[in-house]
Amino acid sequence: MVKAVKTARNTLLAVTLFLLAALIYGFYAVPDEIVAQSSKPTNVSYIYTLTYEDSVSFSRSEEKESEDTYSVNVSFLNIIPVKNSFLKISEREYVAISGELFGIRLFTEGVIVVGVDEVKTSKGSQNPSKEAGLQKGDIILSIDSEEIRSCNQVSEIIEKSGGEAMKLKLKRKGRILFTDFKAAYSDSEGKYKAGIWIRDSAAGIGTMTFRDVKTGMFASLGHGVCDVDTGEILPVYEGDIVNAVVNGCSKGQRGKAGELCGVFSSESKGVLYLNCQCGVFGKINKKLTDEKLYPIAFSDEVQKGRAQIVSTVDETGPQLFDIEIIKISRENSEDKNMVIKVTDENLLSKTGGIVQGMSGSPIIQNGMLVGAVTHVFINDPTQGYAIFARTMLNKMQSAESEAEKAS
């Protein structure tokens, strides 16, 4: 009798611990917003292991006004409530993948402060930028209400200031600030100087990820173009993309990233609208070399296992190379959703793995576009991060919407 009671108690304890673990796992594993491709909300049942078709109830969400958004009650074993989420029904979308190399020419909104310096005056060294509170990474938008567009413009204004106080409008980490600024007179150069190092443009190469054949909008890189000194994403005032041809490659090795070398053409092939954490977006003025359409996968359809990337690493143009998706993080940062590993011996022999310039290379799995290459692991160039294609699509559509409002 005692043995039977002990067995029953242990069984009850094991069942209780199992249910508790299942509830905790379900709470964190099921996202707050679930995206499904079908008009039938029960499609989510095969995506989340703790969500069952007959344990999900649907009602029109009052908190979210979109007609395709529902309130979802998820329960375990059709008995125990796990959490409430939102279900968004979305249509499958198709794009033309690329893998072509291209050049970026970007001009910033205002000028970026990349460093401060002292000015030698008759009264000793002065640091007018430090005195005004300027910091590395600040964006100077205007001086005395005059919009700033170039480094030369800033130099001319400073030299003509006569040392009088000026009002600077700055952007710092997304916030608008104002500060008073007085230039210092450099005896050695015979002119007024600000004591700052500034930058107004950037250029480089990357990989086109995909193009929307209906709108002409494109998505590329999978990460933002950052200033080399500050590490801050450069805000776009205007810019364009041009054709680029590979003329060399330095192979990646442990501790040092490799790099594709390219030559720009002078002819513009599109304009830039947005540079952000998820990539560079804009509108292309002609078709890609190959306009074969691929469906964009929802993040829940991406699986660990074999996949391929489309990259241009030599003069032959875009080619398919084998990789493996070894980790998926659906709740991670915007541009680091997957960890991938290059397994293709041909690519490894040419580049050593992932190199700079391959960012944006489309990732194909099960006949769908699932993502794009973003970063290489410095200590292991055969591995790197990737972003979900769905995230890039959403950002591209947002950039298009903002461009339409501004026009």
How would you describe this structure to a colleague?
The protein folds into three domains: 2-89, no CATH class; 94-104 and 201-406, Thrombin, subunit H (Beta Barrel), CATH 2.40.10.120; 118-194, PDZ domain (Pdz3 Domain, Roll). The strands form five sheets. Strands 6-15-16-19-18-17 form a six-stranded antiparallel β-barrel. It has a six-stranded antiparallel barrel with strand order 21-22-23-26-25-24. The model is unreliable at 39-67 (pLDDT under 50). The protein is an alpha+beta fold and 407 residues long. The chain is built from five helices and 26 strands. It is 16% helix and 46% strand. The radius of gyration is 27 Å and the shape is globular. The longest helix is centred in the N-terminal third of the chain and has 28 residues, at 2-29.
Number of folding domains? 3
End-to-end distance, in Å?
83 Å
Average of pLDDT: 81
**What share of residues is helical?**
10-25%
Please give the count of helices: 5
Low-confidence stretches: 39-67
The appropriate CATH architecture of the largest domain is Beta Barrel
Give the neighbour order of strands across the main sheet: 6-15-16-19-18-17
Spatial extent as radius of gyration: 27 Å
Q: Let me know the number of strands.
A: 26
Highest CATH level, the class of the largest domain: Mainly Beta
Q: Estimate the global geometry from the Cα principal axes.
A: globular
CATH topology of the largest domain: Thrombin, subunit H
